[in-house]
Amino acid sequence: MLNEVYNRRIIELAGTIPRIGRLVDPDATATAVSRLCGSTVTIDLKMDGDTVTAFAHEVKACALGQASSSIMASNIIGSNADELRGLREGVRKMLKENGTPPATGKWADIAVLEPVRDYKARHASTLLTFDAVVDAIGQIEAKRGAKAAAE
User: Is the four-CA dihedral 72, 88, 93, 33 of positive or negative sign?
Assistant: First the structure.
């Protein structure tokens, strides 16, 4: 039953998470926590304009949270805010509304998370990295807005 969720590719991704650690001077830091299982992802983000230029994270999560974080860390540099918000919404829809994962492109590995749809208790840990990234983008935009208003 859970074998399709914890497949070989999920385990591979979970075991090879890039960009582990923290950034020295991030533009924003965000933490997402699954209340159900206690999984936690903390991300640091730097952006130049609308584009992600640096990313690091600490991942204390199950294999699904680790796999999601691995996919994020492998592909986030060069992505823009709208793309990442859309990605988060697409993954949410894939899990909760039978949406389809990206079929091609740099985010195609998201498809390995599709079997999680049938296990609602695993949705929150799978979404952690996406939620944290969108939170950090919002923080950066709010800081920029406050700075612009003060000028």
Answer: positive
Q: Give the distance from CA 130 to its chain's centroid.
A: 3
Q: If DSSP codes are grouped into helix, strand and coil, which group holds residue 29?
A: strand
Helix (H) or strand (E) holding 3: none
Report field, pTM of the whole predicted structure over 0.90:
yes
Instruction: Give CA–CA dist 73/129, Å, rounded.
Output: 9
pLDDT tens readout for residues 47-95: 999 999 999 999 999 999 999 999 999 999 999 999 999 999 999 999 9
Within 13 Å, how many C-alpha atoms sit on residue 84's CB side? 25
What sign for the dihedral angle of Cα 109, 112, 118, 123?
A: negative
Tens-place pLDDT, residues 111-143: 999 999 999 999 999 999 999 999 999 999 999
